[in-house]
């Protein structure tokens, strides 16, 4: 087995707690640089970590074409996309079906750029003609329409949406476009065209806003649909042309639970890990992507939604279920148990009695137990000397009890036999609830083998 080219020195416990000054200003550290946008901007979570962070760690870890980089919580594929650009083979694991779809498309650069644009232009023209027959223009300049004249989602699907997240007329236009897209679903271009629509839905068609939580802003009476979608296709086509030199670099995206990896990857095959798992807070990751998940047909009813939530890391009270037992992995961890006990004491003192509030302490132990379970599974697939970077953030969502996620994850990793090399400060954000700076950090580990 080939050792990694770069060996990071071990850090003392004092250095572990010491912040490393970010190279960029805090306000810009998470921004995607203009030169990095190709493929990354096809569809991206608002809180995704930036490509330059992945690039920095790939360089520090000595990753090259002979190694494999794993992202076990790959989301929309920031790590696999950046690896592919740099010629580094990668594997991404993602349980959320919309994120898995986005990651799979964003790492597929074999599609013919000119063919994609030509195919999409044909669909755009057909959709505009269909809308004209309805007396509707794609421009946001239409008058009033009776609700009965406009297309609607099935009742079960509509019930999954955030209320007023998309206005009736833009929804009608989107459904007409979707009909035409589905008529050509066998096309080699279909997946890219669908992802372009997901991007347009979030960024221009809907009433959604992100700051950073998803919310619903002022309702748009109308919005263009075909135009923004086709603009995204044009950007994809340009990117595919620019990226075609690396289309053969392996980037394997697997839909699976990152706590169950032994059957997915070859033993001793992974040289590095760069990832950002969910944080322990009340962010429901299925809510953030609900609109595009429903309109693309990934979620059609509540049963679909429950199935997705069951497959995710237990990081919020909206996806805790009877029979969950990940907490057993940290039952003897004094710091984590102490945090859970403090959350419960504060809940009782504040007389918080809702069902979700009663689960705050439990979800905290389930989260860290799930991470311990993941790190235990991971050991079998790592090469001796493999380096790992986990981007995580402090949280205070549960009754303002501070959870220093990075420090706790480092403790868990150490108990699993990993070497803790240090904790890099990525950025900070001020919490008005606690009056403290919350840290986002990269926990750096090494697997000795």
Helix and strand topology:
Blueprint: H1 13-17, H2 51-60, E1 69-71, H3 78-85, E2 90-94, H4 97-106, H5 113-133, H6 155-158, H7 168-183, H8 190-205, E3 208-210, E4 214-216, H9 226-243, E5 251-255, E6 270-275, H10 285-288, H11 290-295, H12 302-310, H13 334-349, H14 360-378, E7 382-393, H15 405-415, E8 419-431, E9 436-447
Parallel strand pairs: 1-2, 1-6, 2-5, 6-7
Antiparallel strand pairs: 3-4, 7-9, 8-9
What descriptive keywords fit this protein?
two-stranded antiparallel ribbon; 449 residues; 15 helices; alpha/beta; 9 strands; seven-stranded mixed sheet; disordered N terminus
Structure classification: alpha/beta
**Based on DSSP secondary structure assignment, what is the total number of beta strands?**
9
Q: Can you summarize the main beta sheet?
A: 7 strands, mixed
Average pLDDT = 89
Strand-and-helix sequence, N→C? HHEHEHHHHHEEHEEHHHHHEHEE
How widely separated are the two ends? 12 Å
**Quaternary status:** single chain
Helix segment tally: 15
Q: Can you tell me the residue ranges where pLDDT is under 50 for at least 5 consecutive residues? A: 1-23
What is the gyration radius calculated from CA atoms? 23 Å
> Considering DSSP H and I runs of 4 or more, what fraction of the residues is helical?
25-40%
Strand order of the largest sheet: 5-2-1-6-7-9-8
State which percent range the strand residues make up. Answer: 5-15%
Shape: globular
In a few lines, what is going on in this structure?
The protein is α/β, with parallel strands linked by helices. It is 39% helix and 14% strand.
């Amino acid at each position: 087995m080939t050792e990694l080219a770069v060996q990071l020195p071990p850090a003392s416990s004092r250095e572990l707690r010491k912040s490393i000054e970010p190279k960029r200003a805090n306000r810009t550290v998470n921004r995607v640089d203009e030169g990095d946008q190709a493929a990354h901007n096809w569809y991206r979570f608002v809180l995704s970590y930036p490509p330059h962070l992945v690039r920095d760690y790939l360089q520090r870890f000595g990753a090259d074409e002979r190694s494999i980089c794993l992202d076990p919580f790959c989301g929309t594929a920031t790590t696999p996309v950046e690896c592919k650009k740099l010629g580094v083979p990668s594997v991404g694991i993602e349980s959320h079906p919309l994120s898995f779809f986005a990651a799979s498309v964003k790492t597929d650069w074999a599609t013919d750029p000119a063919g994609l644009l030509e195919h999409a232009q044909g669909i755009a023209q057909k959709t505009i003609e269909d809308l004209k027959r309805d007396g509707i223009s794609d421009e946001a300049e239409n008058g009033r329409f009776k609700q009965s004249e406009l297309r609607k989602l099935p009742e079960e699907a509509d019930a999954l949406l955030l209320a007023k997240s998309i206005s009736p007329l833009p929804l009608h236009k989107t459904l007409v476009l979707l009909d035409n897209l589905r008529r050509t679903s066998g096309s080699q271009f279909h997946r890219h065209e669908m992802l372009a629509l997901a991007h347009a839905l979030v960024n221009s068609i809907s009433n959604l806003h992100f700051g950073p939580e998803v919310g619903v802003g002022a309702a748009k009476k109308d919005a263009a649909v075909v135009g923004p979608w086709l603009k995204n296709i044009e950007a994809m086509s340009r990117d595919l042309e620019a990226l075609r030199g690396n289309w053969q670099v392996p980037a394997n995206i697997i839909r699976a639970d990152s706590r169950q990896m032994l059957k997915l990857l070859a033993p001793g095959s992974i040289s590095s890990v760069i990832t950002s798992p969910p944080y322990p807070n009340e962010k429901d990751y299925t809510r953030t992507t609900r609109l595009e998940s429903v309109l693309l047909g990934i979620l059609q009813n509540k049963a679909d939604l429950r199935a997705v939530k069951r497959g995710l890391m237990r990081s919020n009270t909206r996806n805790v279920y009877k029979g969950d037992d990940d907490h057993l992995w940290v039952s003897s961890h004094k710091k984590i148990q102490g945090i859970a006990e403090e959350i419960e004491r504060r809940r009782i003192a504040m007389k918080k009695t809702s069902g979700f509030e009663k689960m705050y302490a439990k979800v905290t132990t389930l989260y860290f137990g799930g991470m311990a379970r993941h790190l235990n599974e991971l050991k079998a697939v790592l090469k001796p000397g493999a380096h790992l970077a986990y981007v995580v953030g402090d949280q205070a969502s549960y009754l303002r009890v501070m959870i220093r996620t990075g420090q706790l994850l480092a403790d868990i990793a150490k108990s699993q036999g990993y070497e803790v090399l240090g904790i890099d400060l990525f950025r900070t954000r001020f919490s008005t609830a606690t009056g403290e700076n919350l840290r986002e950090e990269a926990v750096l580990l090494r697997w000795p083998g």
